[in-house]
Every structure is written in structure tokens, then in C-alpha cells.
Fold this protein.
Amino acid sequence: MTYRTKQRDVLLDKIMAYEEEPFTADDLILKLMSTSKPVSKATVYRTLDKLERDGLVRKYYVEPSESAFYQYVGQHLDCEDHYHCVCYQCERLFHIDCHIFDDLDAHFQNEHHFKIDLQRTILYGLCENCQGEVTL
Amino acid sequence: MTYRTKQRDVLLDKIMAYEEEPFTADDLILKLMSTSKPVSKATVYRTLDKLERDGLVRKYYVEPSESAFYQYVGQHLDCEDHYHCVCYQCERLFHIDCHIFDDLDAHFQNEHHFKIDLQRTILYGLCENCQGEVTL
DNA sequence: CTAAGTGCAAAATGTTTGCATACTT
DNA sequence: AAGTATGCAAACATTTTGCACTTAG
């Protein structure tokens, strides 16, 4: 039920070329303009949407930018038990496998009656690289 | 350097009437239409912006809604050492005073080389009330 | 008098949609 | 043939802006 088309090939190709780099829909559209098979805006958005639902790409926001960032996360399909950190400086998304939230989960539930949803929660901060470069 | 105007009075009045209820700019604009002193959209946005900068109001997003939510947080000016939980069901923002993140901070720094920024991070999940009502 | 605030309508932004056409299977 | 995918341009939703005008201090 997913047909293979030329634009999808080109699109996936470009997306995977980003590797772990975050990109916006616009970035991608721009990149695709110089391609043998140009892809329209609509298709880019529709495909990103589908890829997100398929778990190949993760969509997130980093304020104050208004546009969504996407990152290829093909290898991290097992999104169940790890959490996400986003660096507000370089906009990269990090997957962190660590069980510290297992305890936290219980803590929040017991102490604060709040059931954390790890899927939606993103921890914002500075990644290792950016810590050196920023003073703020 | 902040003049007192009639629209600002009305605005603040309405905002404080929300108490801890989240509201969108549009909610507010609608509420203000039935007022003795109607307030224009532009002014609402500009004022919310200022109030946010002044720390009286907190702005945040709850997917999949595209519009910003605001919540009056006048009494929580001391935003330094507590964190924010948002219920993705009722869209309420909770301030939680707890020092569990003091340890976490170190943990993330040491183990994952990530410096969490508590100001920007929002923990999403279900609040006590909504836990009973939702199956998802 | 000057700085700040306001309203309006227009612009900007980022994303989605309707529809006719074209491609995959 | 049936079900998907595509491109285009128009629609959308939310927020921001330019500008002329008003008000507060």
C-alpha cells in the first residue's frame, strides 16, 4: 500500500544523506530543487508526514524557530524505552538509552501524581559540542 | 516605561480570571470582544508577549494544536528551581517544586554530556485528573 | 512633548488541501 | 482497473508588521 515512485526515492535519498543532521521541510525542498526529479512542496510535506508515522523520521520543534525540524532516526525504531534530548543550539536530537527514567516515572507518579509520557517529552539543553561554544 | 491603558486593564483582568486555566490568544480575543473596551488582536498578542517576558504568563505548546497556550503564573516568578509538567489532555501547566532534577542534572552531565535546561524543558504526560479519564 | 500603546488591514510564515492528472501494482 | 502519489495553486491558521493615530506620563 505504499507505491514506489521516483520522487519518493529521491526524497528518501536526500533524507538519509542528512544522516543525523536535523533539517526543515524547507531545507529539503531546496535540496530537491536541483534534482533530476524535482519534488513539490506538497509531496515533501506529505512524505515527511508518512515517514514520521512510520517511525523513520522524528519531528520536533526548537524554539524560537517556528518551523518543524526533522531528523532521520531509522535505526531507533525501538522508541519505547529511551528518551530524547534536543540541543537548542545546534538543534540536534539525541537518543539516550538509560534507565534513569524508570525511577523517575515512579517518582513523578507517586510524589506528584503525574504520569510522564516519555514519547512526547523532550529534554532541552546543550549538547557536549555546544557547551564549549556558548556562554549563555 | 509601561503605561497603564484601559485595554491593558481589561486584558489583565480577563487573563487573571482564567486563574490557572490555559488559554489561547484566540480564546482571549473572543472574550474581549464582549467588553466595554474591545481590544484588538494586535494588542492582545503584543501584550501577551510582554507579559511573558515579564514572567507573569507562560507560553507553551501542546501538540497537535498549532496555537500557543498561555497560562497565568503570576505567583511562580521564582522559575529558577522548579520544573514544568504539561498535561497533553487538559493542556494545563503544572509547576513542580522538587529537587529530583538536581541529581538528574549531574547525571545527564556526567553520563550523557548533556546540560539540561530546566527553563525550556517541559515534561509531557497526564495529570492526576486526566489519568482517570483517558484510556490511551 | 515624548515615549508608549493602539487599531486596522496587509503581510508573513509554515503547512495543508482540493482537484485534475499520472503512475504503480 | 483500483488504489496511490503528484503538482499546482489556492486555502489555512496563527502570528507579526507598518503606519497613522491616540493616549499616558
Remarks:
- Residues 1-74 of chain A form a domain with the Arc Repressor Mutant, subunit A fold (CATH 1.10.10.10).
- Chain A touches chain B at residues 61, 63, 85, 87-88, 94, 96, 98, 100, 104, 107-108, 111-117, 120-128, 131 (CB under 8 Å).
